[in-house]
Amino acid sequence: MSSVFDALKERGFVSQCSNEEGLRKLLDTQAVTFYIGFDATAPSLHVGHLQQLMCMAFLQRAGHRPIALMGGGTTRIGDPSGKTEMRRILPVETIAANVDAIKAQASHFLDFSPGKALLLDNAEWLAPLNYIEFLRDIGKHFSVNRMLSFETYKMRLETGLSFIEFNYQILQSYDYLVLNRRHGCLLQMGGDDQWGNIVAGMDLIRRIEGVEAFALTSPLVTRSDGKKMGKTEQGALFLDPAMIRPYEFYQYWVNVPDADVRQFLLRFTFLPVSEVEELCAAKDQRINDAKRRLALEITTLVHGKSAAREAAEGSRAAFSAAGEGAAAGPGDLSGVPSVEVARSELVKGVGVVDLFVRSTLCATKSDARRLVRQGGAYVGRKNVTDIETLITEADAENGVILLRAGKKRYFRIIVA
C-alpha cells in the first residue's frame, strides 16, 4: 500500500478528516509538518496517549516531521473536552515538572535529533500574551454560536462551563496558528474528542493566513468488553515505571480480551499488517501467543528491551511456579512485584486477608475477603477459600510465597 494515509486508515488511526483526498495527496507528495498536543495534567502520559504517539511515529517513519507540543500553557486552564467537570487547576511549578517528565517519555517513540521531530512547549507563546491584544487579533475570529455547536461544549453546558474553559478552544487554535507561522505546520491530529478544537484552529489559519490546513482525528480506544481502556487495579495505566511497574504493564496486555488483540497489535506495535493478521488467526489457547507478543512489543516500546524481557520472564515464571506450566521450568521471578515480610511474623502466621492487602493484589480487606470466598485466591499452588487461613513460612518455596489473584495476577512475598 503506497499511501501513508491509507496505511494509517488500515491500522485504525483514522476517524474524521477535514479533507481526506487533499490530505492524502499532501502526505504523498511532500514532507508535512504536523502536531499533536499533550497537556501536562500528570507527571506521566498514560495508555490513552499511546495511540497518538504511535500515529506520530508511523508518520515520522514515512518521512514527515512531528511536533510534540507540551501544554505548559494550556494546562493552566484545562481542556473541557470529554470532561463532565472542570479540571483541577495545577500550580505552575507542578505543570513545569510534568512537562519535563512527558518530554522524556515522548522520546521513546520519536526521533528528536536535528532535522527530525520538534519538542515544543506552548507556554513559550501563551504565557506572555497580552489579553486585550489577543482578544482583538484572535478572539474576533471566533463565533460563540459555532463554539457552542460542538459536542464538548453542549455536554458541559448541562453541568456548568466556566469562562476560563471556554477560552481553551481559542488558545488551542492559536497554538495551531503559531506552529503554522513558525514551522509550516499543516496538520493537527488528536482523538475524536478534540475534533471541535482542531477544526477551530484549522479555520483560524484559513481566515488569517489564507491557506488550507488539515484536521485528522483517531477513534477513542475502547475495549470490546466495555471496560475503560487502560484501567488497572492501581488506576490509570501510566507509562512511567515508577507509577506502574513494567511487570504490571506487561500483564495488562497479556490479559486483554481476545477480541481486542488485533486492534491493539495494529495500533500499538510496528508489526506489519500481514504478521498481525497471521498472529490473530489463532483461536482458543493459541491466541495467548499473540497476547504475549503484543505485551512484549508494547512493553519494549515504553520501557525498553531489558525491562520487557524481565517482565515477560517474570510472567512466565509466575505461571510455572503456580503449577500452570511446570514444563516451562521455574524461571526467574525477579520481575514479579514483591514486598518483604519478616520471618518472625510468618512464624506466628499472617492472615491470608491481611497478606493479600499488603501485596496490593487487593485494595481493601473487603476486596480480599471477597476474593478468598469466591475461590480466586491462591498461595503457591494451593487455592485458599477460608478467610481465617494463616499463611506461614511453610508456605514459602525458596524463601518466596507466591500469591495469585484470579487467573493471572501475581505477587511475591519475600521472607526476610
User: Main sheet: which strands, in order across?
Assistant: 1-6-5-2-3-4
Question: Sheet with the most strands?
Answer: 6 strands, mixed
Please name the CATH topology of the largest domain.
Rossmann fold
Number of strands: 15
- Percent helix, as a range, is 40-55%
The chain-level mean pLDDT equals 86
Structural class assignment: alpha/beta
User: Any low-confidence stretches, pLDDT <50, length ≥5?
Assistant: 82-86, 325-330
Strand-residue proportion = 5-15%
CATH class of the largest domain: Alpha Beta
CATH superfamily of the largest domain: HUPs
* C-alpha Rg (nearest Å): 25 Å
How many helices does DSSP assign? 19
Shape: elongated
Question: In oligomeric terms, what are we looking at?
Answer: single chain
CA-CA gap between termini: 58 Å
Tell me which CATH architecture of the largest domain applies here: 3-Layer(aba) Sandwich
Domain tally: 3
Primary descriptors:
Structural Genomics Hypothetical 15.5 Kd Protein In mrcA-pckA Intergenic Region, Chain A, 416 residues, 5-stranded mixed beta sheet, 45% helix, 6-stranded mixed beta sheet, Rossmann fold, alpha/beta, Tyrosyl-Transfer RNA Synthetase
Describe this protein's structure.
By secondary structure, the protein is of the alpha/beta class. It has three domains: 4-218, HUPs (Rossmann fold), CATH 3.40.50; 231-328, Tyrosyl-Transfer RNA Synthetase (Orthogonal Bundle); 338-415, Structural Genomics Hypothetical 15.5 Kd Protein In mrcA-pckA Intergenic Region, Chain A, CATH 3.10.290. Helices cover 45% and strands 15% of the residues. It contains 19 helices and 15 strands. The protein has helices at 4-10, 20-29, 50-61, 92-106, 123-126, 131-137, 144-149, 151-159, 163-166, 168-183, 195-209, 246-254, 261-268, 273-280, 287-303, 305-321, 343-348, 352-358, 365-373, and strands at residues 16-17, 33-39, 65-71, 118-121, 187-191, 214-218, 231-232, 235-236, 338-341, 350-351, 377-379, 382-384, 390-391, 400-405, 409-415. Strands 1-6-5-2-3-4 form a six-stranded mixed sheet, with helices on both faces. The protein has a five-stranded mixed sheet with strand order 9-15-14-11-12, sandwiched between helices. Strands 7-8 form a two-stranded antiparallel ribbon. Helix 4 (92-106) links the parallel strand 3 (65-71) and strand 4. It is elongated. The termini are far apart. Residues 82-86 and 325-330 have low confidence and may be disordered.
